[in-house]
Amino acid sequence: xxxxxxxxxxxxxxxxxxxxxxxxxxxxQYAHFAWRVQDGFFKGIPRxxxxxxxGYLWLSTGSELLRFDGVRFVPWSSxxxxxxxxxxxxxxxxxxxxxxxxxxxxxxxxxDQTLSSYSAVTGGLLLEDRxxxxxxxxxxxxxxxxxxxxxxATRCEALVDTTQGVGVPGHLIEDKQGNIWIGLQRGLVRWTxxxxxxxxxxxxxxxxxxxxxxxxxxPDGAIWVGIAKRGEGLGLQQLVQGRWQTVKTPELDGATxxxxxxxxxxxxxxWIATNDHGLYRLYRxxxxxxxxxxxxxxxxxxxxxxxxxxxxWVTTTQGVDRFSDTSVVAFSTTxxxxxxxxxxxxxxxxxxIWVSGDRALSTVRDGRVTCLRTGEGLPGSQVTxxxxxxxxxxxxxxxxxxxxIEHGDFRRITKPDGSPIGFVTGIAEDTNDNVWxxxxxxxxxxxxxxxxxxxxxxxxxxxxxxxxxxxxxxLWLGLMNGNLAHYRDxxxxxxxxxxxxTASLHQLLPDRDGSVLAATSYxxxxxxxxxxxxxxxxxxxxxxxxxxxxxxxxxxxxxxxRCALGELTSADLQLWRHDPGHRVSLRTLDIFxxxxxxxxxxLAAARSPDGRLWFANGLMLEMTDPAHARRNTVLxxxxxxxxxxxxxxxxxxxxxxxxxxxxxxxxxxxxxSFVTPQKVLFRYRLEGRDPTWQExxxxxxxxYNDLRPGTYRFxxxxxxxxxxxxxxxxxxxxxxxxxxYQTTTFVVLSALAGVLAVWTLFRLRVRQLAHALNARFxxxxxxxxxxxRDLHDTLLQTLQGSKMVADDALTRPEDAxxxxxxxxxxxxxxxxxxxxxxxxxxxxxxSTTQRNDLAEAFRRAIEDCGxxxxxxxxxxxxxxxxxxxxxxxxxxxxxxYEAIRNAWTHSAASRLEVTLTYARDLIVRVAxxxxxxxxxxxxxxxxxxxxxxxxxxxxxxxxASLTVNSSPDSGTEINLIVPGRAIFRKPADTLVDRLxxxxxxxxxxxx
Length: 1007
Known about the structure:
Shape: elongated
Strand content: 35-45%
CATH class of the domain at 849-1007: Alpha Beta
Distance between the termini: 113 Å
Radius of gyration: 56 Å
Largest sheet: 6 strands, mixed
Helix content: 10-25%
CATH topology of the domain at 849-1007: Heat Shock Protein 90
């Protein structure tokens, strides 16, 4: 049997310490993301990267300065300020929040939106010491001086005499003792309180090249030195107590490297940047390598940064790379596994992890991987299920056979007839040391083995796929049809679940109380105390397809699903077991946490004795350590980045005043967490507009299009990738200015004007109603007065005369003849009084408002007069009858009736002619051949008589003209002309009246 040892897989003690990528992991096991020049992110070559205390990353490309928020690279710009030159040599993020920018033309400082320049000096590399003093050298084109910033000026001091061949500065660092180290072109200088000590390796004395290209201070006080010269014992050097040492390990010869930069991270690991081979990391004498063949943006590495969350940033000539720790760590052939497949895993009691794959069996123990391959110690090609029995022997299904590995030797287990067991898909051992095997050699069979000998086989109707021991007795079986079964003493009980025909059961997990859980394609199922359990998307799972599962040391259940890895707490699990409808709350890990979805055909989950959980996804091995899981405890700084209103951009500082009638408002904000920017969540609220917090998820913009004039406060908060919220967040005051008609003054004046207008309209309406009421009162009073006068002139005078005749007769009762004459006279006068009273009543009651036939009304009036006298009257109509306004029509009738009655009463005429003409205007003509009217009476009316005066008043009321022509020879002619616009109705007016009448009839409950 042949074993091969893979030293590259460092699995021992993967403990996650805060604030840096874990050096115990391979670089390939970090989450890695790259922004490449070829994808258009940068216009030049990325060189320097720093992080300011506000959380932003700043990147220089030689030709531009960029600010990065995890999603967007935004070119730096200032409206009124510019850098002294575009060629940037170095960047420094100072602790006071300022950003120092060294250019070929000088030194600049950016803080609080203000750029300060020190153009009198030539900028080089930058350093902030422990006291906050800013140091810089004057670059390779300078005089070989080390300078410091003193208030608003600089002070420089020359280094060693360059004529001695040491050269101008190239790198600056500070060690733990506060010494400043300057990398020169041909040596190294230690600067201590103004004194200088030169350290010059022999290989640099005569060489003229880039000299020292990297410096880093080791935790033990040594100085790492990178030299851009391979061979001659140079490359990567270490200065220890004044002595030079070439770095050399079994995996790396430092002399062969062309070093471009050096960096010691917070865990003490040394990162080595090279000109042509990407990255090397040296930690505890172990070396790891990562280059463009494994995904690095470029092989020429230029710079490093450890950010506040522990991410490592690397700049290359081809882009920017970010390396981050993840909660789940992946292992594949890159990290030393022996096969590109991972089909099943087993955690042995000695701490080793057994990993099966195609034509290989890997054993991981103490950070080393032992490989058994087909033809090199492995008696087969396809390793299936595995089991470690009570004696520490390893049972392995291999092809269609079953083997036991003991002391490194393989022993084959066969049936009593010598035939192979079959393709093993499940294997378990009970408390009586019986080994139970599920083999799929048709038909599927359950086999019991004791003492390495097959004792019996059960081949019932059920087709088992998985087998596990029930601690209370018997076996739990997972069937091919996706159901559960329990086998005991030859009896099989089938427990059926509702699912489709394509369902499959992947794994069984029994508990000490006799219950069981099963991972299936349709959810997590279980059987407990005769009760069926089912957990799906409906009550909390992110997806239903569960490939495998295992418990951690705290009793929490971990579910490896096709979509994520979920942790179900023990408390939630118990609640679900008690109430299958309970909605659980899972903490899920996804691709951003290092989870690669997939499935393995056999047992794909295990918990090692140290508490780590292992999962197989078919292509690689994945591991998480619940006891040492790193949580990102850094609150993400939140900033409001931009305000865009109606296409115009406003600075997000102070109080932002927006113009009147602003409609489209966009507020851009950022949450600066760089571990997984895709999982940064936001909440925002515009106080004065939003009653509650808005939940935009990962969206980094807020939009409003309905803001009224007023003062608002925008507040936004964010959470990092582990759900830790920065409750303080960022806030900004907004004022939407009102238009002139939206101002308070205008609104108040408008309100006053409205009140005044309403009051004015009310007064006008009251006046109109009063005028109309007074007109009606005047009309009634005038009519009553006329009728009173008519009654006085006719009926009352006749009655008074009759009373006088009666009184006179009563004074002479003895005069019979006189009495008779008086009675006769009284009878005549009473008849006359009756006629006069009837005429007055007819004048009051007769109207045409009930009917529209004015001609018919005039005919009735003429007939009434004709029955009381011998007057010959005629009536004629010219033109077609037309609809008339009822009030005007009634007035016309009363004028005409009065003219007819006057002719009958006063004219002594024998003939009367009445003509009604419908033309453009309405014309009424009443003519008689009587004695006429005295001109003074025709003009002014008769004293104490009101007939003509009333006719004229009625005519004036409806806008008509009334003329009276009279002479003793020709009689009297009265003409009334009423304008058509005043009396004739339009068709629309008639339709409106009809509709009103119809609606009135519908509203009438009786009708």
